[in-house]
Every structure is written in C-alpha cells, then in structure tokens.
Amino acid sequence: MDIFIKNIVDILKVEVPLSGEEIEGFIEIPPDLEKGDYAFPCFAIAKQLRNAPAKISAELAQKLPTGDIITGIKAIGPYLNFYVSRKMFFKTILNDVFTESDSYGCSDLGKGKTAVIDYSSPNIAKHLAVHHLRSAVIGNAIHNIHKTLGYRCVGINHLGDWGTQFGQLIVAFKRWGPDTKDQGSIQETGLDINKLNKLYVQFHKEAKENPALEDEARDWFKKLENGNEEARETWQYFKEISLSEFERVYEKLGITFDSYAGESFYNDMLDDTVDRIKEAGLSEISEEALIVNLEEYDMPPCILRKKDDASLYATRDICAAEYRKREYDFDKLIYVVGSEQKLHFNQFFKVLELMGYEWVSSCEHVDFGLVKFKGGKMSTREGKVILLEDLLEESCKIAMEIIEGKNAELENKEEVANAIGIGAIIFSELSSKRVKDVLFDWDEILNFDGETGPYVQYTHARLCSVLRKCGETATNDIGHDLLKEDDELLLVKKLEFFQLTLIRAAKSCEPSIVSKYLLDLCSTFNRFYQHHRILIDDAELKKARVLLVDSVRQVIKNGLGILGLKAPERM
Ligand code: ARG
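That is the input. Now the predicted structure with arginine docked in place:
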C-alpha cells in the first residue's frame, strides 16, 4: 500500500469501527479534483454508528488530524475527502514506478500464502471448447494477479481424462479406428483429435442401433480401471494426442500450468476418500449406487460410486481437493469453471464441509458466463463447431490486414499481428465481468478505438513512439513541482491506483477490474496528450513530462502482461 492510502487508513482507523483492510477496500478516487484526491464513503459505517452518513462525515472532518502527507480533510455530503501534498505525491509515485519498473504493482501482501488455481481443464479426446478458452484466459489472469501480489501460485489443468466415455472410445477405436496390426503400433496410426472426435460420434450413433456396444464399453472401462495393458496403452495414446493439441493452443495463448494432474491422477486415492466419507456416516446406498444424500440442503444427491463401482466426476473432485490441501496447503483454492457447473461445486463443497474440513471455506467456484458468436465469419449458425485454433488464426489474420493498412513498413509484422490478434481475443474475454456472457464480434474486438485489447496495446505503442521522438531516456531526477496541470495529476493518480486495482481484482477474482483500469488509464492519457505537449523547448518541463509518459507506458505494459497480453513497442 502506498504511503498516501496508508496514511488515510491510519488516520481513519482511530475513529472508525472498521479494520484497516476494510477501510482500504472502501477508499475511492473522486472523479474530479475539487473533491479531493481520495474519498471515504461514510455510508460504509452509517449502520454501525447509527447516524446519517453526511453527519458522520462532517464530524470526522472536524476531528481528524492533517499533516505533511494529508494536508486537508473536507466533508462533501456523505463523503469524507482527503487532499494530499501534490509535490510529495508526484515525487513518491513517479519514483516508485521508475525504480520498480517491470515489478511496479508487485507487493508482498500474499507472502507466505498459496493460491491453487484450477483452470481450462478440458476433456481429452475432444477439441478444446470455447469455454475452456475462457477458463484458461480468466484463470491465467487470476494466476498472474495473485503472483504479482506475492502469493505462491500453483496452476492446475484438471484434465478430464477418466470416466466411462474412455471405454466407449476404446471400443470405437478397436472397431472402426485405424488398423494397428498393419501399422505396427498404436503410435503410428496417425490418429488425431478430429478422428477421435469422429470415433466418439460414431460410437453413439451405432450404440443406438446396437445397445450391446454399451456393455462392451463398460467392460473396457472396467479393464482400464483394473490396469489392463491394452486398455491402458490405448488410453495413454488418446491422452498424448490430446495433450499435444492442447499444448499447441496454450502456447499460442502464452498460457502455462504448473501441473497437469487430471482426473485419472486420483485413481489410487479414491478408495481412501470414499472410505472417509463412509466412516463419517455420510453415505448411503440408493438404487445400488453409493451417494451422499443432500436433500436437507435442497440439492440432489452427490453420487460417489455407480452400481458397477465406477467413480464419478464429483468423487474425483472431492479426492482432488483433499490431495491439494495435503500437497500444497493452500490458502485459496480457486476453480475457474463455467456457471453451468454451479450445482456440481455446491454439492461437492457441501460434502467436504460435512466431512469436517474447515478449509472448504477457502475453496471458491469462480464462475463465468457463455461466449456467444455474432453472425458473420465463424458464426455458429450453421451448427458448425468453432475450433479454437481457427479462431486464433482468424484473429491474427485480421490483425495482419489491419497492420498492412496502417503501417505496412513495420518490421516483424507477423509477431506484432499475433500479439494483437491473440491479445484481442484474450481482452474480449476479460473486459466485462466474468459472470456476464460475452458476445464475440470481430468488428468489435479488433477495433483500435474501442474498449479493446488492441486499443490498449496501440496506446502503449503510441507512448513508445512519443518517447522515441523525444530522444531522451526517462530519469527520475526531475523538478516535481513543475508538474502543475490537473491532467498530470489525474494521470499520476491513476498510476498510483494500479496496486489497489490488483488487490481488488484478487479479492473478487475479477480480472475485468484490471482491464477496466487499463482502458481508463489509456483514456486519461489520451486526454492529457490532447491538451499538452511533450516535445517542448522548456528542457526541465520536458524532462518531467518524459518521466510521466514513461511511467504511464510502464504501467500499461505491466497491466497488459498481467492479463496475458503482449505490449509491442511499434504497431
Ligand atoms: N473437465 C471439465 C469440463 O470440461 C472441467 C473441470 C473443471 N475442474 C474441476 N476441478 N472440476 O467441463
């Protein structure tokens, strides 16, 4: 926390019935300068103090002390407004950005704490779906935000690599797949995800005519569970094919994981988990299946084992949560999974709670809305599946066309087009609150003047170009009192707000707080740049403005990086 906010918190803490952290959470930056540099809304304490917010703020304005850092305190309606020493403000913030550069925004708030984040988590033998992209992008941003705040982060891809469907796939592979005898080994069959997907579809079609196939599939899944070599080898192969496709897409997106421990990873631990649930007297047999009855909590039962003893998605999630607690001793376990799985999470969180695990309160289902496609290129209207790789490719292609039109001379065009194309997609997934559905519209997401990734990237590149034209490198040895304009102050205030933005985004697992912040920072800069010049004769003022512009550039770059976007210096 910077010294200004810290000072305000310290002053307020004495008189207000809230903790320092709570006070910090309420602090706002007023939209216009007359209203001070920071504000505290007194509705936050009106209930506890049984008084009207405006009265409270008037009283506090009288009572609270000012000093060198906070030079004035004024009540404006229900708000308590704080005024800071401008010179000190410029000096502190610009100095922080300058010296911390790439790590500006970092803190040790999460020091000694661990955040485990489960994201993307697709099912093998199927194409990555659009919701796995959204989960990957949101999860990666949440991972980066926590890392910046000093948490130890563990990113897990909880692959869907177990379940009865793999029995079905093995049957389909053996019946209709490439002939492994002719090919020598499974590895040489040239199977890819497309073909696997087709086999899967074919199985369901044929099983309608011939239900015996389902029994066959069950038998193969049993064999797989019992460690039968042929079953294992075939399944392993499906997994390799899938992973190589997934990793290709993740690489394009610049997304990484610390662990790929998927559902199958827990196979040997499931019995113990189920035993613990049984021993706690939580389970019962219903229609031959083993379940935890959750009627009392208005939820359907959580099924642990089917009648043929096979485990389920929920069983494996309960087991995985126990394992993650043992292995990582997390302070937060975050599941970035679509809203449609809300019930699943409520159910197995409830089972964990009934098992007596207090740490379930630190598990959170970070849900998100759907991605919908607007008509035009790649619309879903014709019932076509949208393949992620095609989506990314198309975006980079359009970005390239834009560059050709804007700046055909640009060096490393391809690299920049990829940064913009991928950035546009990532930003579009992050620019509205995650629970909202996203409407995917090419014209919208690649618009350099819209609320988009390319707009932020373009602003960054413009700043780099302004600095190049100045021919001066930034130095922090400037006359801070030369920065007298309101537009300058507004800009530095935004820079200062970066860290608080990250803290708030981490608290609510809401990366859109960061994307909104960046859009705001860019438009604040653009407003400044409309009215003020950097290339001026006054050498001292020029030096001060170069530092200011360089600081904005740095913060935009850091913010883009946290969201998972590149920041090209030329576009
Ligand atoms: N594989 C699941 C799906 O595609 C998502 C898994 C999410 N993570 C979890 N621990 N349940 O729907």
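The longest strand covers residues 70-76.
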